[in-house]
Amino acid sequence: MAEIRDTIRWMKLRGWLEMVQARMTSGQATKDWCKENGISVKTYYYRLKCIRLSTLQEPEKASLYLGTATVKTPALAKLDFSLAQEDVASEGADSANGVFAVTVRIGDIAIDISNNADPAVIASTLRLVRDIC
After folding, report:
1. Do residues 53 and 39 touch, judged by C-beta distance below 8 A?
2. 59 touches 71 (CB < 8 A)
3. What is the pLDDT of residues 14-23, one digit of tens each?
């Protein structure tokens, strides 16, 4: 009986994932897409949150039911910034506050982080990116 409930839950998540993918491929803002499709923005984000949580908590089942890539255990990686200033400077990417040490790319979006960036601003920006993605 528990297996049936679990399968039903994952099939519901599959439908929600299709909804999210439809919104993303539409190119519309979430608010506009939701209004056009008769879904409240709160419901949309609730469903998106459920998909994300389920995928992180049960990556094997998410891969099976949702066709998502299996999430690997997070690991720390050592980053060498000793050449970052030289490489970026050669590309002419000087900012007003210094040279960009890091560029975060997500799809068509690029976020450049300066060597002189305030740590609080970096943390806030990365939290916003995490919440959006």
Report:
1. no
2. yes
3. 999 999 989 9
* CA atoms of 68 and 131, how far apart (whole Å): 19
Tally Cβ neighbours within 10 Å of residue 2: 6
Task: Supply the DSSP string of 29-98, one letter for each residue.
Answer: -HHHHHHHHT--HHHHHHHHHHHHHHHHH-HHHHHHHH-PPPPPPP-------TTHHHHHHHTT-EETTE
Using a 10 angstrom Cβ sphere, with 0-12 exposed, 13-18 middle and 19 or more buried, the burial of residue 13 is: buried
In this prediction, residues 48-68 reach a mean pLDDT of 83
User: How many CB atoms sit inside 10 A of residue 29's CB?
Assistant: 10
- End-to-end CA separation in angstroms for the chain: 34
